[in-house]
Amino acid sequence: MEKEPIKDSLKQSATTTISPIENVLALAKKGNLSHLPNFILDWIEQNSSDFFSIWDDRGNGQYFSKAVEKTLGFKPDELIGKSYRDMILPEELDYIKKQFSKDTFTNQTFNVHIINFDQKYIWCECKLAKIKDPSTGKVHYVGTTRDITDKKETEEMMIRSEKMSIAGQLAAGIAHEIRNPLTSIKGFLQLLQAGVNRKDVYYKIMIDEIEKMETITSELLFISKPLTDNKKQESINQMIQDVMELLKPQAKLKNVILETNGNENYIYCDKSQIKQVLINIIKNAIEAMEEAGKISVSIDELESDVRIDISDEGPGIDEEVIHKLGEPFFTTKQQGTGLGLMITKQLLQRHNASLEILQNPIKGSTFRIIFPK
């Protein structure tokens, strides 16, 4: 028996109290969403890398396409009525709830961990649209979801590679910075060995020098570790301060002064990822400086966002090059990989943040990071 044409079905529903969304759901469950033959619809379902879903305003699943079984291992019927709260990694729930509660929520893309049939969390990209039923006023969420585990693993591998490359490039400046305190400590130990009386003063100086070395090596070890994915409220000022401590030795080698200004501000982020962003941009600014000068990092809090401006006094960036920055393997540096800014943009996308590159009026460039409040 041939399928009933969808337009005829919709005509019939107009005489009932069934809403358009409910009608689509009913038709979807019957597989009556197109004039295409069943074998073509089945082929699309079986070969699609995305699955389609509809959720009610409480976050309970109303419909799942057959492709969900390929992605998550569950049959569509097993997920009907299930809350998204039971499917998403608990650590990511607070962020998702905040986004859903916003009046401005319409369309958004999330990268989240979703539990599969084997009780393992896999990386998924979810595109959600908020739709209000015109006849009932009910809110529904319609979305597509795809498994991006392979993509994430490739990204993580590139980030680890770039992090280790940065650690290697910073090693020369850090070795120089550590050697000076070691020389001081050695001298004071020799004085103490000779029996001098000002022990308390020397002990204090040695402790201060050791703490300097500890700060630098801690930050170097921090960037060598794999990136985490643990978002919470973090101090922007503290993250900038930590990064500057790490990059001061390299800046000193090029006679560049690092300075920061701005009131205390907090953003919801993963500290290791945003530190990596700051390292990439400030390190690039130091390398761009051909003469002695200053790099300033300022924080501005506006009505809808928080901005971090990183301004250098280098030669600036040509207008025709600016739009290419961030493309894979495009670089203006002789020894550059072209991955630093690409990774920076990827990390910012994970935080719904963006990067703007501006030309300064007199000389140099400003890299502006914009975080939504």
Describe the structure.
It is a single chain. With 373 residues, the chain is of the alpha+beta class. It has two domains: 6-147, PAS domain (Beta-Lactamase, 2-Layer Sandwich), CATH 3.30.450.20; 152-372, Heat Shock Protein 90 (2-Layer Sandwich), CATH 3.30.565.10. Helix content is 46%, strand content 23%. The protein has twelve helices and twelve strands. It has helices at 6-14, 20-30, 38-47, 68-72, 76-79, 90-101, 149-193, 199-224, 236-253, 271-288, 319-322, 340-349; strands at 50-56, 61-64, 107-115, 121-132, 139-147, 231-235, 256-261, 266-270, 293-301, 305-311, 354-359, 365-372. The strands form three sheets. It has a five-stranded antiparallel beta sheet with strand order 2-1-5-4-3. A five-stranded mixed beta sheet has the order 7-9-10-12-11. A two-stranded antiparallel ribbon has the order 6-8. Strand 11 and strand 12 form a beta hairpin. Helix 8 packs across helix 9. The chain is elongated, with a radius of gyration of 28 Å. The N and C termini lie far apart (56 Å). Mean pLDDT is 78; it is low at 1-21.
Summarize the structure.
The protein is α+β, with helices and mostly antiparallel strands and 373 residues long.
**In which order are the strands of the major sheet placed?**
2-1-5-4-3
Write down how many β-strands occur, each being a DSSP E stretch of 2 or more residues: 12
Distance between the termini: 56 Å
Let me know the largest β-sheet. 5 strands, antiparallel
Mean pLDDT: 78
Q: What would CATH call the class of the largest domain?
A: Alpha Beta
